[in-house]
Design goal:
The chain is an alpha/beta fold and 403 residues long. The protein contains eleven helices and 20 strands. It binds S-adenosyl-L-homocysteine.
Length: 403
């Protein structure tokens, strides 16, 4: 195995089991590893640090697959064992849903590999040279271990380019996926388009928050003797909107700029038999919509803000912070005392603390007396590896407007 020796002092993060090695940390490479080749990483003093997959095109040059010198990292069994462990860890979720993340990259010891299950199909994203190199092995192991009917690949994320990998979409193994796969989550049905939908087709990561919305709608009805009037901004295929209806909301206004997402959202509402008159779908830019709604004197019992990633890297944090503040301020202005705000950020470059500060800034400008009564994050199928906190990208707050 080719040896990669780090510069002096650069072994510290690996000793803490952080799984990434940047090109700038590398002193010497004893050979010319191909894209995805397994290498042995050594400290400047020659001590063993771990095994990782080499990515010649990426500044993130090596992603670690094991810190155990005796691990047989290059054998198919190694991959089988990792996948088996990842899949078993998610078995419990089946009681609630058949839309689950089965493999979450670094957290599952399979750097750069994303696998989501939608009913009988799996959808993959190979986002690292190492995962890409072992694609066939991985696809076969996934079929054997899960008994899936097919694996559909959505390796079209922008992150692939940084690894020098081309975009790829299509059936990898087994039966081709149907145009729309029907899934159920906490009693609500959703149609998932794995070919052109966002990410792998659905925001599996928002499951716990959608359930919280469903519960809030139910509690609201019990307490007030009427259902809530809610505004779901950035609704995509209606995730939160349908959860709110299932909980007994009276009216849900859903806003998104994508006509395709709204078309799927309407179909999803029909699939659940939800009354059309109580669901309003608006194709608009949320930044504009919130201003217009205020001018029109609209008010809501709940506003949900689940925008796309505003900061794609730390270079964009400042601009993103202004955008988050804008929607949070204008979202809050549509709430009366007693109103609720669910607000989220999925930008990895904006951490929990910074997000809280941005939202606090909006609270201050809105001159609202506000409590945070709940924190949100991705579900248990997106665990944060304690040695790799960067894996935690999704955070959210439940705010309550006080008198
Ligand atoms: N809450 C959703 C996921 C939201 S994804 C769920 O649980 O499924 C973000 C959505 O924001 C996408 O559907 C995208 O089309 C939409 N979007 C992005 N920018 C927008 C803008 N400026 N105005 C309105 N919608 C926008």
């Amino acid at each position: 195995m080719i040896e990669v020796t780090l510069k002096k002092g650069k072994e510290k993060s690996l000793l803490r089991r952080h799984p990434w090695v940047y090109d700038t940390a590398i002193g010497k490479v004893a050979g010319k590893p191909f894209s995805g080749e397994m290498v042995k990483v050594l400290g400047a003093d020659g001590r063993f640090l771990g095994y990782g997959a080499y990515s010649p095109a990426s500044t993130l040059r090596v992603r670690m697959w094991s810190f155990d010198e005796s691990a047989n990292v290059e054998t198919p069994q190694f991959v089988v064992d990792r996948i088996e462990a990842a899949v078993r860890a998610r078995d419990g979720l089946l009681e609630r849903t058949n839309a689950r993340r089965l493999i979450f990259g670094e957290a599952d010891g399979l750097p750069g590999l994303i696998v989501d299950a939608y009913g009988d199909w799996l959808v993959t994203q190979f986002q690292s040279a190492g995962a890409e190199f072992r694609m066939q092995e991985i696809a076969k192991a996934l079929m054997d271990i899960t008994g899936a009917r097919g694996v559909f690949d959505r390796s079209d994320a922008a992150t692939r380019a940084r690894e020098g990998l081309p975009s790829r979409v299509g059936c990898l193994i087994g039966e081709d996926a149907p145009a729309v796969i029907e899934v159920v989550e906490d009693g609500v049905k959703y149609g998932v388009d794995v070919r052109v939908g966002h990410k792998t087709g659905f925001y599996v990561d928002q499951r716990e928050s959608r359930l919280a919305a469903q519960k809030l709608a139910r509690e609201f009805r019990e307490r007030h003797g009427r259902g809530m009037r809610a505004l779901n901004c950035f609704c995509y295929t209606g995730g939160f909107s349908l959860a709110l209806m299932a909980g007994g909301a009276d009216e849900v206004v859903s806003v998104d700029s994508s006509a395709d997402a709204l078309a799927q959202a309407r179909k999803n509402a029909q699939m659940n038999g939800f009354d059309d008159d109580r669901m309003k779908w608006v194709e608009a830019d949320v930044f504009d919509y919130l201003r217009k709604a205020r001018e029109a004197g609209e008010t809501f019992d709940l506003v949900i803000l689940d925008p796309p990633k505003f900061a794609s890297s730390h270079y964009h944090v400042e601009r993103a912070a202004r955008a988050y503040k804008d929607i949070n301020l204008n979202g809050m202005r549509l709430l009366q005392p007693g109103g609720h705000l669910f607000t989220f950020s999925c930008s990895g470059a904006i951490d929990v603390d910074l997000f809280q500060k941005i939202v606090a800034g909006a609270v201050f400008d809105a001159r609202k007396n506000t409590w945070a009564i709940e924190r949100f994050g991705a579900g248990a199928d997106h665990p944060m590896l304690m040695t790799y906190p960067e894996g935690e990208y999704l955070k959210g707050l439940h705010l309550l407007m006080r008198p």
